[in-house]
Amino acid sequence: MSLVLKVFHLIVMQLSKYLVFFHKSVHIDFTNKHIEHKPIHIRHQVVPYENTAKYLDVTLDAKLRWKPHVKKKQEELTLKYRKMYWLMGHHSALSVYNKLMLYQQVLKPVWTYGIQLWGCTSQSNRNIIQRFQNRVLCGIVDAPWYIRNDNLHKDLDVETVDSVIKKYAQSHEQ
After folding, report:
1. I want to staple 89 with a disulfide (CB 3.0 to 4.6 A). Which of 48, 85, 93, 152 is the partner?
2. Tell me, what DSSP letter sits at residue 38?
3. Domains of the chain: which residue ranges?
């Protein structure tokens, strides 16, 4: 019996290396149904239940609607754009080409990360990112309010959010 206990103790010690960060763990049920949450225990402590969890910089919500992820990306993009406004704004001495290059290299990767997952979100969530993109493009070229967004995209040769989602989805399928 003591041999069994020793082996069990060794297994627990080996597993404890992986359970060091259990305080960062959250319990989330991915379902559209309303269910009773049964507590999950790790090391005799209850893992807290959350409606959202962040994993690899992608925010997952319980119903996989992607609204929290899109909102966080919008906040992150807004902060980055504000920090870079002196370079990308209409008072900047940079050329339009260089401003677009900054957008393509710094801001676009923020919202395209994980797009294969959250690209299936509702149109209203995709519009949040599209509005941000329109605002940045207007600021880059100092466009007046009456210039249509599709004209900006066509003239600057920048893809819309929906077309980028389609492109990434097609490349993901292949």
Report:
1. 85
2. P
3. 2-50, 58-173
